[in-house]
């Protein structure tokens, strides 16, 4: 399996470091408007950080977004790995699953970096979604698969696995889009807001792509 993420990671880094900067109320030693990646919650430095460092400016919505989107992305990667382990899967669907891994891997790294910069811990929730409701938005991780859903995907074979993956991932993406839209409205950290907009736009396009692939899958196995 090709797990190279160099190009997606570079593109994400360029997008995120292009966010606008504000003023600094504290001299951090890293330059105006720049906060070190290890800044703790409550730091007064504002604005986007330079050189890819995460800005200390954030609110509760930013933290919750990162805590929830992290296991959401991790589950999407796991689902994609399950599909790629199957034989007889249509090449187009397998290629899509690899793209999910390649795109969300760097975003997982950035979500972890944001939480570390804010002194926040990752969510302790089950990545299978068994501890979360099905409602989308910041109040729940919408679209998360249950343990039973993951087991069904793992045991499915061939085109049945491809169909189930596309159906599950469509629901999964819809939940991510809702969370991302909410973050874009409520978040304060410019990099987290930019990431949310990036996630929403990319996954909306992928939902349309998955719906097309579902229509084109042959009936039966």
UniProtKB/TrEMBL annotation:
Residues 62-214 form the DUF305 domain. Residues 1-20 form the signal peptide. InterPro entries: DUF305_CopM-like, Ferritin-like. Residues 33-53 have a biased composition (Low complexity). It holds the Pfam family DUF305. Residues 21-53 are annotated as: Disordered. Keywords: Signal. Gene3D superfamilies: 1.20.1260.10. PANTHER family: SLL0788 PROTEIN. This is DUF305 domain-containing protein. It comes from Kocuria aegyptia.
């Amino acid at each position: 399996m090709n797990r190279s993420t160099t190009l997606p990671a570079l593109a994400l880094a360029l997008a995120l470091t292009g966010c606008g900067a504000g003023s600094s109320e504290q001299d951090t030693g890293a330059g105006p408007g720049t906060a070190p990646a290890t800044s703790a919650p409550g730091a007064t430095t504002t604005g986007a950080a330079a050189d890819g460092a995460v800005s200390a400016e954030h609110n509760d919505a930013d933290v919750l977004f990162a805590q929830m989107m992290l296991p959401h992305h991790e589950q999407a990667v796991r689902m994609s790995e399950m599909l790629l382990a199957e034989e007889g899967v249509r090449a187009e669907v397998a290629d899509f699953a690899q793209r999910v891994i390649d795109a969300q891997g760097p975003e997982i790294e950035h979500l972890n970096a944001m939480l570390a910069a804010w002194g926040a811990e990752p969510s302790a929730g089950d990545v299978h979604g068994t501890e979360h409701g099905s409602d989308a938005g910041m109040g729940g991780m919408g679209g998360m698969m249950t343990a039973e859903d993951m087991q069904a995907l793992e045991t499915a074979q061939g085109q049945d696995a491809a169909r189930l993956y596309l159906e599950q991932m469509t629901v999964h993406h819809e939940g991510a889009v809702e969370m991302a839209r909410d973050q874009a409205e409520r978040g304060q950290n410019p990099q987290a807001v930019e990431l949310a907009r990036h996630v929403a736009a990319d996954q909306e396009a992928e939902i349309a792509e998955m719906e097309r692939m579902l229509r084109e899958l042959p009936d039966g196995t």
